[in-house]
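Page 37, continued from 36.
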C-alpha cells in the first residue's frame, strides 16, 4: 500500500483518526462522531493506546498473535478494531471510497451479532479474520 495512509489512535478522546490522501476521518472507538465522543468517552492512557497499536500491527502481520490479549486491549472489541485496522492499512477504505465512520459502525454492528458462547464468538472471529 502507499505511504500516505496513517492510522492514529488518540488518547485524548479515545478516537481513531484515519488520514488517507489528505482527507481526515475521525471516529471514536464506538464509531461515533468526534463531538459525541468528546462528551461521552473516558480518556484512555497513552501507554494503553500504544500497546493496542502494537497488538493490531502484530495481529495483521503474524500468525502467532493472541486474540484474547487483543480483545482485552481493545476493550472487548478485537473484531471491529482489527477489521478497521486491516481495511485502513490495506487501502481498501480509500480504494472503495468507504467513509471510516461508516466502516466502523458496520464492524461494530457485525461484532454485536456474535453470541457469547465459548468458541464461535467475536474473539474467535477476530482470530479467523487475522
Amino acid at each position: 500500500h502507499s505511504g500516505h495512509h496513517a492510522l492514529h489512535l488518540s488518547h485524548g478522546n479515545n478516537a481513531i483518526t484515519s488520514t488517507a490522501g489528505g482527507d481526515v476521518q475521525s471516529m471514536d472507538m464506538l464509531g461515533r462522531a468526534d463531538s459525541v465522543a468528546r462528551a461521552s468517552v473516558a480518556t484512555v492512557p497513552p501507554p494503553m493506546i500504544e500497546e493496542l497499536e502494537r497488538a493490531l500491527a502484530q495481529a495483521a502481520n503474524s500468525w502467532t498473535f493472541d486474540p484474547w490479549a487483543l480483545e482485552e486491549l481493545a476493550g472487548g472489541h478485537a473484531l471491529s478494531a482489527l477489521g478497521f485496522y486491516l481495511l485502513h492499512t490495506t487501502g481498501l477504505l480509500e480504494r472503495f471510497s468507504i467513509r471510516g465512520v461508516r466502516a466502523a459502525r458496520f464492524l461494530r454492528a457485525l461484532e454485536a451479532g456474535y453470541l457469547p458462547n465459548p468458541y464461535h464468538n467475536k474473539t474467535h472471529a477476530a482470530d479467523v479474520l487475522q
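The CA atoms of residues 109 and 124 lie 16 Å apart. Flag for discussion at group meeting. Helices lie at 34-40, 46-61, 67-73, 78-89, 92-95, 100-112, 122-129.
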